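Sample entry copied in:
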Amino acid sequence: MKSLILLVEDSATTRELVQAQLTFLGYRVTTAKNGAEGVAKAIAELPDLIVMDIQMPVMDGIQATSQIRKEPTTQVIPILACTAKTMSGDKQKCLDSGCSDYIAKPFTHKQLQIAVEKLLSKPPMSVNTGEGLLADEDKTPE
């Protein structure tokens, strides 16, 4: 069975488009309209990956990511920040909040596919929790 992806996006148009792209790729998709709903769905459904918009009402993606990283059951779920915020420092802010990777809007279907496949192929313990990587792939075993 293909992976379950939680898409957290406030724009109905963007949410429908990205959901269609992910479904076309064979993924199961559940959605949330804001960060607070995203946190609740992440805890309840334990998706394999979260695609998180950053600028949203109620709770933004940075706050939602921080909440998800604090929960023991969701802290290792990879989170792909998906945002139109492309100013210098925005990517680092997303990564510092605990996002595993970053993709800037607008993005192509292929860019989304590559980012999703990259994150789903990593071991669960190699996602960013906001305090650096839990497991560094370049470390030699002790």
User: Anything to note?
Assistant: The radius of gyration is 14 Å. Residues 129-142 have pLDDT under 50 and may be disordered. The first helix runs from residue 12 to 24.
